[in-house]
Design a protein that fits this description.
Largest sheet: 5 strands, mixed
Shape: globular
Radius of gyration: 16 Å
Mean pLDDT: 94
Strand order of the largest sheet: 1-2-3-4-5
Low-confidence stretches: none
């Protein structure tokens, strides 16, 4: 299979939103489009598409530039907010190719690390991160107190 990994532009918002909705189904695709468009305008959010030979999006990754991330050594830091591959295209190293492209782009901008997270019980995501070269830095328990 021939595929390419590219950074998203405004022309990719519809495809990005469609794939994003598959990962985060809460809210309508239109809400994702609006969120992406707003975030793109401030330059903090970046999207990447994995596209097959027919030009169809088969995966996406989303990176934000955060002021801080747990486990990071520098600030600001690029943070992998999400990555998703269409189920029938998984286990083909597409995620690895996306992370390699993201890493190269971030390094070219002078960043020295890429951070991410996964829920503690999401073993598939944790294993994927490890296979992509991420190292676990810490574990955190979040608390909330209703007022």
């Amino acid at each position: 299979m021939s595929l390419s990994i590219r950074g998203c532009a405004a022309a990719d918002i519809a495809e990005w939103a469609r794939l994003r909705h598959a990962l985060w189904p809460d809210g309508a695709v239109e809400e994702h489009r609006a969120e992406i468009a707003a975030a793109l305008s401030d330059g903090v959010l970046r999207g990447y598409l994995a596209v097959d030979e027919q030009g169809q999006g088969i995966g996406f990754a989303e990176v934000s530039i955060r002021r801080y991330a747990n486990g990071s050594t520098q600030s600001p830091v690029p943070f992998l907010e999400g990555i998703w591959i269409v189920p029938e295209h998984r286990q083909q190293k597409i995620g690895r190719l996306m992370i390699e492209r993201i890493s190269a782009d971030c390094a070219a901008e002078g960043f020295v690390e890429l951070c991410s997270d996964a829920e503690i019980d999401n073993l598939a995501s944790r294993h994927a991160h490890e296979s992509w070269g991420f190292a676990e830095t810490e574990r955190v328990v979040y608390f909330r107190k209703a007022l």
